[in-house]
C-alpha cells in the first residue's frame, strides 16, 4: 500500500489554506496529515501549516517499528495536543492571527490497519464495495443530521454547512476523535477536505477511485471539484 496526495486552491479562493503531508514510516506503514485552516487569509495558512508540521514531526520522531494500535492512538493524540498548543499560543501572541484554527485528519496505516484521528469537518472515507464515511463531522449541520432534523443531502446545501463545532488551535485544549478501521484487500482509504466533498458526490468519488490508478484518481478528484465550481481549497490523499 502507498499513499498519494494532492492539493489545489480551487477556482475562487486567492490562496490555499489547506496543508498536507504524506510519508512512509516503514515498508508497510504510511501516514497522511491533512488540515484545512480558517481565520482570515493569513490565519488559515499559518494554522494549517503549523499543525501539519508539528503533527508530522511528532509522528516521524515517535513512531517505532511494530507499535501497537493503542500506542499509535496515544502518539496521534499527543501530536495533535502539541499542535493545538502551538497554534493557540501563536494566535494569542499575534493580534493579526487571533481566532485562527484548523481542521485535521491524521492517519497512520500499518499493513491493512488504519488509525484515524480527526477534528472538524475534513473527512476519511473507506472505499471497497461501496464508499463509507469513517469520520463524524464536528459541525452544526452534522449534529442536525444525527438528530434526524435534516438529511445528509440537505446538509450539503445548508447555509450553515461551514460552521464547525470543534477545531484545532481555537481553545487551550481540544479533544480529537479516534477511529480504527481495517482496509479490505483491494480497498482504499481517502482523506480529504470539504473542498472536495462539498463539490463532488460520494458516488462520483467512488466511481473515480475505482476507475483510475491511485495517482490519476487523486488528480481527477481535484479536477472534478474544480469543474463543479471549485469554491474552496481542495485536498485529497489516498491510501491504495
The total number of structural domains is 1
What is the helix tally? 7
**CATH homologous superfamily assignment:** PPM-type phosphatase domain
Radius of gyration using CA atoms only: 17 Å
Name of the CATH class: Alpha Beta
Distance between the termini: 5 Å
The averaged pLDDT comes out at 95
Give me the CATH architecture, please: 4-Layer Sandwich
Shape descriptor reads: globular
The portion of residues assigned to helices is: 25-40%
String of helices and strands: EEEHHEEEEEHHEEHHHE
Classify the fold: give the CATH topology. Answer: Phosphatase 2c, domain 1
Strand content: 25-35%
How many beta-strand runs?
A: 11
Low-confidence stretches: none
In short, what is this structure?
With about 240 residues, this protein is α+β, with helices and mostly antiparallel strands.
Amino acid at each position: 500500500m502507498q499513499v498519494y496526495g494532492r492539493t489545489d486552491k480551487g477556482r475562487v479562493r486567492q490562496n490555499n489554506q489547506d496543508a498536507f503531508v504524506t510519508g512512509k514510516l516503514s515498508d508497510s506503514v504510511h501516514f497522511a496529515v491533512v488540515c484545512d485552516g480558517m481565520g482570515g487569509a493569513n490565519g488559515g495558512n499559518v494554522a494549517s501549516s503549523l499543525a501539519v508540521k508539528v503533527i508530522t514531526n511528532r509522528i516521524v520522531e515517535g513512531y517505532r517499528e511494530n507499535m501497537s494500535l493503542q500506542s499509535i492512538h496515544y502518539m496521534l493524540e499527543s501530536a495533535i495536543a502539541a499542535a493545538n498548543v502551538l497554534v493557540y499560543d501563536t494566535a494569542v501572541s499575534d493580534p493579526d492571527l487571533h481566532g485562527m484554527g484548523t481542521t485535521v485528519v491524521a492517519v497512520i496505516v500499518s499493513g491493512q490497519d488504519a488509525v484515524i484521528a480527526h477534528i472538524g469537518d475534513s473527512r476519511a472515507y473507506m472505499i471497497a464495495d461501496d464508499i463509507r464515511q469513517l469520520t463524524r463531522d464536528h459541525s452544526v449541520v452534522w449534529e442536525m443530521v444525527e438528530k434526524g432534523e435534516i438529511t445528509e443531502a440537505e446538509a450539503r446545501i445548508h447555509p450553515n454547512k461551514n460552521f464547525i463545532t470543534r477545531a484545532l488551535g481555537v481553545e487551550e485544549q481540544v479533544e480529537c476523535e479516534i477511529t480504527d478501521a481495517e482496509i479490505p484487500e483491494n480497498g482504499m482509504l481517502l482523506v480529504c477536505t470539504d473542498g472536495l466533498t462539498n463539490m463532488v458526490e460520494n458516488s462520483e468519488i467512488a466511481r473515480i477511485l475505482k476507475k483510475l490508478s491511485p495517482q490519476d484518481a487523486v488528480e481527477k478528484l481535484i479536477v472534478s471539484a474544480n469543474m463543479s465550481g471549485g469554491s474552496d481549497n481542495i485536498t485529497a490523499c489516498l491510501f491504495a
